[in-house]
Amino acid sequence: MDIRKITGTFAVSPQILPAEVPEIAAAGYRSIICNRPDAEGADQPGHEELAAAAKKAGLKFRHLPVTPGMVSDETAAQFGEALAELPAPTLAFCRTGTRSATLWSLSQAKTRPLPEILAATKAAGYDMNGVARRIANGGKTPTDVTDASYDVVIVGAGAAGIATASSLKARKPDLEIAVIDPADIHYYQPGWTMVGGGIFDASETAKTMGSLIPRGVHWIKSAVAAFEPKDNAVVLDGCRVIKYTRLVVCPGLKLAWDKIKGLEDTLGRNGVTSNYRYDLAPYTWKLVQGLKKGRAIFTQPPMPIKCAGAPQKALYLSANAWERAGMLSDIRIDFMNAGGVLFGVKDYVPALMSYVERYKANLNFFHNLKSIDGEARTATFSVTRPDEEPVEVTEEFDMIHVCPPQVAPDFIRVSPLADAAGWVDVDQSTLRHKDYENIWSLGDVMNAPNAKTAAAARVQAAIVAQNLADDIDGRSPSVVYNGYGSCPLTVERGKIVLAEFGYGGALLPSFPTWMIDGTKPTRAAWLLKEKVLPPVYWKAMLRGREWMVHPEKVTAS
């Protein structure tokens, strides 16, 4: 038998045989639903024969036949009623299991989020994107066709989305562009490290979304539920349908706080903080100021994450504050890194190591945070060193700065746009989707092997805007992305190691070494981060002014 669990109490399978019913009972199932009409296939037992076998095994049996391709709203409702009435766990079957999975998906539409339904069925081997619109509509077939249609639809109004909209408008003023995002506030996330270090005020990093949407661009204040790329459509929560000629996907990524047991219960108290959240970054600085002696732990999860240097930036700024206050010798600092190196581009490691040594920080590689007990102030790590058996260690702390695991948003991971890991699948040079020629993606959500930073999005926005404009004009892409990303590593108050690099770790400095040598800590890089980059972000990048952006041109072979 091929039983595929969808939830803890429900599974589906292809056709079952009477002789297999005792095995189904032994597996713990208490009910069977048959969704296959009798005589659909020559090798198929009748439902009455299966019902008799179920009765003999002590199982309940229900026959809800569905003709292939004709899953009605009424049958889906009846399926939901059957699930409620029959004792669980329940096994439903048809010829392949697809009809049963479809019925379950539609029956759950009013009680489970669409991404959860798509993820559960996808994990069992069934793609329900074909009925995503019906699921979004509460399990019923929509009666409407399209709510609106635009030349370009941009999913996500973060740094990447607004910058792309502005750059597109600058190139093609007459384009009808819509940006889809439910958020009221737009955040300058690169500033949160500085908030946690007592340099910026949190309010400086937030502006209302409405004040930043480019003039002439439509803002659809809603969440995306699903994509229908074959129909050039985006399905919103509530089953509104937005059509597009071209689509740009850049909703950012998801901070998976829940993947660390106990973390959500203690964030913002018990000495547990993170600069990865607007409301918690001020708490980081409060903890740093209040810690006079004891142990401070800083964590970094497996890649990919936003700004690979951010976890250690928090360490450096905190340590420097304790150093300036004369308390560094009374505080033990531990950096718990799930990876095996301090920084992925070796050219910057010597400068960073000099600060690790200066602050007497202990480097603990291959340590991945698994759980936190805030009341007890303990953190448990899985330690997985190469060629060694994994072990768990529990460490005490007075303060812990957590960088959460990070994944693609749920509605992206279960969509036709995603690769096997859940990220939007693009060509790493043109940022065009590998399967759908009228779709592009940029920012943290796509799968190109670059650093996920705002500086990367700044360059990518210009590249996507230009290549999309080229496509409108009937031309091939004219610019390519070299993987550029920047990570200003704040090693002390007043100095930064300005890491700028591209694919394969190639150094891509924006300034001559006499001005800023990125492999060394410099005051100039600090002034760039503190004084120059925030206005560049708000007044240039988000307004389509592509300062300090020089995309590589496509060269003829």
Provide the fold topology:
Blueprint: E1 4-7, E2 10-13, H1 21-26, E3 31-34, H2 47-56, E4 60-63, H3 73-85, E5 90-93, H4 98-107, H5 114-123, H6 132-136, E6 148-155, H7 159-171, E7 177-180, E8 185-187, H8 192-196, E9 206-208, E10 218-220, E11 224-228, E12 233-236, E13 241-249, E14 254-255, H9 263-266, E15 272-273, H10 281-290, E16 294-300, H11 310-324, E17 331-337, H12 349-358, E18 361-365, E19 367-373, E20 378-383, E21 391-396, E22 399-401, E23 406-407, H13 410-413, E24 439-441, H14 454-472, E25 479-480, E26 485-492, E27 495-501, E28 521-522, H15 523-540, E29 552-553
Parallel strand pairs: 2-5, 3-4, 3-5, 6-7, 6-13, 7-10, 13-24, 15-22, 16-17, 16-22, 17-18
Antiparallel strand pairs: 1-2, 8-9, 11-12, 12-13, 14-23, 19-20, 20-21, 25-29, 26-27, 27-28
Helix pairs in contact: 3-4, 7-14
Tally of helical runs: 15
Give the overall pLDDT as a whole number.
93
CATH architecture of the largest domain: 3-Layer(bba) Sandwich
Characterize the overall form.
globular
N/C terminus separation: 54 Å
Largest sheet: 7 strands, mixed
Return Rg in Å: 27 Å
Organism: Vannielia litorea
GO molecular function, one term: hydrolase activity
Cofactor: FAD
Domain Beta-lactamase hydrolase-like protein phosphatase-like: 2-110
